[in-house]
Specification:
- The protein is α/β, with parallel strands linked by helices.
- 46% of the residues lie in helices and 13% in strands.
- The protein has a six-stranded parallel beta sheet with strand order 2-1-3-4-5-11, sandwiched between helices. Strands 7-6-8-9-10-12 form a six-stranded mixed beta sheet, with helices on both faces.
- Helix 1 packs across helix 8 (242-257), helix 5 (170-183) packs across helix 6 and helix 9 (288-300) packs across helix 10.
- The protein is globular and about 75 Å long.
């Protein structure tokens, strides 16, 4: 019998660490090992992605693998080595693999996104998924749960799968997506199957001048930082419990090594939270002048615009627009301009590594000292303290 305190078990990790989902699962595995002072002899491909065309001789004591990758799942069929599967939950129990399995709870993920949109006053919903394919079963499951939830709540759900995009068909795909978006009722809330697909929507909306979030609201899934960095409108997203999935998978494998019994019943891991950003900052406003003004303010507040520039852009008197703002929002135009600047500053403090001086300049403040003064007056803490506090919370 092996002594886990003396001998290191050989463990193979079969993942595609080019995406955030797999990277966070791997982090969770590492967190378990560090927390329990366990030393595994780990193999993972140098490219961080397992190539199923490469011969694999299973010279190991255990495997943790992403079963959303159907090629990997096929590779491990009938392998007589302890295997822990990690992946998406399924719509029916008969679809689960016959190995211990840790899964992202897709129903809870879609429900979290749906409830977030509802909290914004949205009552029309759409889903942007992926074309049906064996390698995208997780996307089909999320689409099924979207249909189930909107039907249970008595809403009509609009669904578009689009095309699998490539460099060759990218422009045509955007054209087709744009037509679908233009067909949706104004103030529809869209759940994208992941952040990458949400980014497609942001680009298509920009192309046909659909305003987000004034005309359509959008939420993705994954909290993929690279996608958010590439988007002009910051993306609200559901942060999955991927690190917990990795932690639980490693815990199960170690239990097997310790000769414990492990059930093959799937363990569903709930999402951690919804990260709210600008793409769902929807306000139930009917006044077209106020909608136009808010969109203009969002685009130019950090460039130092004044109230007179907003009224000039809309070709409306200041007194008229102020009355409309008071009626629709209970705020002055000046207040909304400053809120937008501070919202941008808070976003950059949490999400970027820019210096506070650079953030101050980007948000249109004449000096970093003045920025500090206003920020502390409004939030009771300095920008530096705010960054330290909320950056740590965002990692939870």
């Amino acid at each position: 019998m092996k002594d886990t305190q003396v001998e290191s078990y050989k463990v193979v990790l079969l993942f595609n660490a080019n995406n955030i989902y797999d990277r966070q699962i791997l982090k969770g595995i590492g967190d378990f090992l560090k927390a329990n002072n366990i030393h595994w002899n780990i193999y993972i491909s140098e490219t961080m992605r397992y190539d199923t065309n490469t011969a694999f001789h299973f010279d190991c004591d255990g495997i943790i693998a992403n079963f959303d990758d159907t090629d990997i799942q096929d590779l491990l069929t009938n392998v007589d080595i302890p295997i822990i599967g990690v992946g998406s939950s399924h719509h029916d129990n008969s679809s689960y693999p016959k190995v211990p399995y840790v899964a992202a709870d897709n129903f809870a993920i879609i429900e979290s996104a749906f409830n977030h949109l509802c909290s914004k006053g949205i009552n029309q919903f759409a889903f942007y998924g992926l074309p049906s394919h064996r390698s995208c079963r997780w996307a089909a499951v999320r689409e099924q749960f979207f249909e189930q939830i909107v039907n249970q709540k008595g809403y009509e759900g609009f669904i578009y799968q689009g095309t699998t995009t490539s460099l060759d068909n990218w422009q045509d795909s955007l054209d087709k997506l744009s037509k679908w978006l233009l067909s949706l009722p104004v103030n529809t809330g869209i759940i994208a199957v992941n952040d990458a697909r949400a980014h497609h929507i942001l680009q298509a909306c920009d192309r046909v001048e659909i305003k987000i979030p004034e005309e359509l609201c959008l939420i993705g899934i994954d909290n993929e930082e690279v996608i958010n960095d590439l988007s002009m409108v910051s993306l609200s997203t559901v942060k999955q419990g991927t690190e917990e999935m990795g932690f639980e998978a490693a815990k199960l494998l170690q239990k097997i090594f310790n000769k414990g019994k492990v059930s093959t019943s799937p363990r569903l891991i709930s999402p951690k939270k919804v990260i709210e950003r600008r793409s769902t900052d929807y306000r139930s406003i009917q006044d077209p002048y106020v909608i136009q003004a808010i969109h203009y303010i969002r685009d130019y507040a950090c460039k130092g615009i004044k109230v007179d520039q907003v009224t000039s852009e809309l070709q409306i008197s200041r007194s008229n627009l102020e009355l409309r703002f008071k009626t629709s929002l209970g705020k002055t135009i000046h207040t909304v301009i400053h809120e937008e600047k501070f919202n941008r500053a808070k976003y950059l403090l949490i999400e970027s590594s820019l210096s506070i001086q650079a953030i101050s300049e980007q948000c249109g403040y004449p000096s970093v000292q003045y920025f500090y003064f206003l920020f502390k007056k409004l939030y009771g803490m300095t920008p530096k303290d705010f960054r330290n506090k909320f950056t740590n919370l965002n990692l939870l």
